Amino acid sequence: MTRDEAIEIVKEHVSSRNLVNHMIATGAVMKALAKKFGEDEAIWEVAGILHDYDYPETKEHPEKHGLISVELLKKYNLPQEVYDAILAHCDKKPREKLIEKAIYAADPTTGFIVAGALIRPEKKLEPVDVKFLIKRFKEKSFAKGASREQMASCSEMGLSLEEFYDIALTAMKNIHEELGL
Ligand SMILES: [Fe+2]
Fold first, then answer.
1. Total domains in the fold of the chain
2. Any idea what the CATH number is for the domain that residue 87 is in?
3. How far from 160 is each of 68, 69, 152, 155, 168, CA to CA, in Å?
4. What would the pLDDT profile of 90-120 be if each residue is shown by its tens digit?
5. What is the 27 CA–ligand 1 centroid distance (Å)?
6. DSSP track, 74-113
7. Domain range spanning residue 67?
8. Could you tell me the distance, in angstroms and rounded to a whole number, from the CA of residue 66 to the centre of ligand 1?
9. CA of 181 to the centre of ligand 1 (A)
10. Does the pTM of the predicted model rise above 0.70?
């Protein structure tokens, strides 16, 4: 499945533009992490784009989140890593492979970075930098929904928070127009 095909099926299934953007952003961060580690960029990006596919079915049933996505996406015969990553992002599978660790850390990070852009008057990613994100990370009341524990788990990939934010922020800035930021 290509990036465009993944975005297409997500748009057909998920009505919230914000959520679609979150999935596209997570795909971009995953692609950048794959590049960093010499892994398959296309597979990692597709996993990121599809990771919240079952949101409409599971927003009231978090215990089924991820499991329904795998069911619904089975017909596309995706590489096993994609299904495993989808399960691992919401703790339905232990994090073993690098792609599983990457998606777990990347998921809250995209929302955290968007929140960083939106509190500034310009509402753009451009002025956001790593120093700003690190400062906000320590501020518990900022973007409370973005799990600090989950973002800090980038250490499981051998990345410092600074390195991880740098990769994620650059990846999102590269598609800022698509994200409307
Ligand atoms: Fe997500």
1. 1
2. 1.10.3210
3. 33, 31, 8, 6, 12
4. 999 999 999 999 999 999 999 999 999 999 8
5. 10
6. GGG---HHHHHHHHHHTTSS---SHHHHHHHHHHHHHHHH
7. 3-179
8. 10
9. 18
10. yes
